[in-house]
Amino acid sequence: MWLADGLDPAPILDDIAALAATASVPVRTVNNVRLRQVATTEAPQGVLAFAAPLPEADLDDLAIDRPGGRAPFLVVVDGLTDPHNLGALLRTAQCAGATGAVLPRHRSAHVTATVAKAAAGAIEYLPMAVVPGIASALARLAGAGVWTVGLDAAAPTPLWSLAVATEPIALVLGAEGAGLSRLAKTRCQLLVSIPQAGPIASLNVAAAGALACFEVSRARPEG
User: Fold this and answer.
1) Which residue in 24, 112, 172, 189 has the fewest CB atoms around it within 10 Å?
2) SS3 category, 58
3) Predicted local confidence at residue 21, as pLDDT
């Protein structure tokens, strides 16, 4: 871990140093300019941690409904490109009790330092599978008994009427503005919408994802 020199004393820095010492993580004080050169976020706030890459989960493992365990509750991201939205969505999913996330390998934001910061630690707890294509992943999930439910503003069925929330489920969220891709939409077994009363056409994808995740969580016995 790197700490920028000249930082003002703060309790959070003391906590970071103490946690690092407990975990035997080396701490090095470096020039602030050097730290900013290495950091990949706009505002590293004087602290930079180096870690091994996150392990990728297996999609088939995420789809298993294990006896005595929580039914799969997955969040599938279809072409989300804003790292702040992705980070916020992963944070929400973890807080709502999701058991995993599915991200496409191409044409989408991946887990970067910006995503990790916006996720506020969720990436350390939420298993994530990275797949070649979302459409084929949805077919595999459906074949494994997981309901694939897409959020679509034009769907006639409201989110609040989702009857399969207690079953193994994968919520599918589309890209900012464009929404679900045509192929992903056709592979979803159900499409639901979030009823809106105002003149704005749609919700931010992270906000829509939060509503959907907690609606599923509310319906579940462990929610």
Assistant:
1) 24
2) coil
3) 93
The whole-number pLDDT of residue 222 equals 66
Query: In degrees rounded to 5, what are phi and psi of residue 189?
Result: -75, -30
Task: Tell me what the mean pLDDT of segment 186-200 comes to.
Answer: 88
Tokens at 193, concatenated: 């919408």
Phi, psi of 214 (to 5 degrees): -75, -25
pLDDT at residue 43 is higher than 80: no
**DSSP output for 65-130:** --TTSPPPEEEEESS---HHHHHHHHHHHHHTT--EEEEESSSS----HHHHHHHTTGGGTS-EEE
Handedness of CA 23, 27, 32, 34 (dihedral sign): negative
For residue 86, give Cα distances in angstroms to 69, 142, 168: 27, 24, 22
Average pLDDT, integer, range 162-172:
94
CATH code for position 157: 3.40.1280.10
Residue 36 belongs to what domain range? 2-48
Query: Do 43 and 121 share a domain, yes or no?
Result: no
How does strand 190-192 pair with strand 2-4?
Answer: unpaired
The Cα 94–Cα 96 span in angstroms is 5
